[in-house]
Amino acid sequence: MEERVRRVQVQDYVQKRTTRAGFGGLSIQRTPLGTHVRITAERPGLVIGRKG
C-alpha cells in the first residue's frame, strides 16, 4: 500500500513539472540493481533540457 502512495506522489510531481512537455505517462520498475523511471512525453526535449 505504501508503495502505491509513493507512486501516486511521484506521478503527481512529474505531471506538475512537465505540463508544457505534454506529459503522457510514468512507468516505475524496481530491479535488483535499482529503480527505473520512464517518463513518456509529447515533447521530450523539454523534459531532458538543453544539457541533456
From TrEMBL:
**What are the alphabetically sorted keywords of the record?**
RNA-binding
Recorded hits in SUPFAM superfamilies, A to Z, give: Prokaryotic type KH domain (KH-domain type II) (SSF54814)
One Pfam short name = KH_2
Molecular function (Gene Ontology), one example: RNA binding
Tell me the ranges covered by the KH type-2 domain, including all copies: 10-52
PROSITE patterns recorded for this chain? KH_TYPE_2
The protein's matches in InterPro entries, at most eight in alphabetical order, are given as: KH_dom-like_a/b, KH_dom_type_2, KH_sf_prok-type
* Name recorded for this polypeptide: KH type-2 domain-containing protein
Can you name the source organism?
marine metagenome
